[in-house]
Amino acid sequence: MQLEMGKLRVIINILNFLTGRTMRHNRALRNIRDWAATVQKFLSEYQLYGNSNIDFLLENNRKANFDLIAMAHKGNVLIKPASKIRDAQVSPLLTKVVDEIENMRRAMMSPTLRNTRLPEVVSRLRVSFEKLQKELSAIEYI
What is the average per-residue pLDDT within 59-65? Predict the structure, then answer.
């Protein structure tokens, strides 16, 4: 029985390779990991990782806003290819992170929301991003 399952796995892997499924999985995973590294760099650069202090973020409001727009755009582009990742539910997690990035940008634009909503939005972004990172770390290339 074990030998038959091994042969079946080899046949499935060959079919996935021939149909391009393996390539789509690997490309989507690589692109999302690269994008996630950009988000992590943003959180570190603006001193938002493990810290609820948003002063540095507000001091660099214009640059941060530009970075958020770029990350949201690239993240939206990656949502559809994320569905090609096998054996994982990356699309909903990626969508949640992109939504939190857009919420953060909106909160930064409004002076009334900056002090009240921005710390909460930053916290939700960190939590969503950590969930995505955890899921990505468990996925292997085929």
Answer: 94
Burial of 22 (0-12, 13-18, 19+ CB in 10 A): middle
- Beta carbons of 46 and 57 less than 8 angstroms apart: yes
Backbone angles phi and psi of 126, in degrees to 5: -60, -45
Question: Which amino acid belongs to residue 61?
Answer: N
The sign of the CA dihedral 23, 24, 30, 33 is negative
The full set of domain ranges for the chain reads 25-138
Kindly report, residue by residue over 32-42, the tens digit of the pLDDT.
999 999 999 99
Tell me how far apart the alpha carbons of residues 104 and 99 are, in angstroms, rounded to a whole number.
Answer: 9
pTM metric for this prediction:
0.87
pLDDT band, very low/low/confident/very high, at 17 (cuts 50, 70, 90): confident
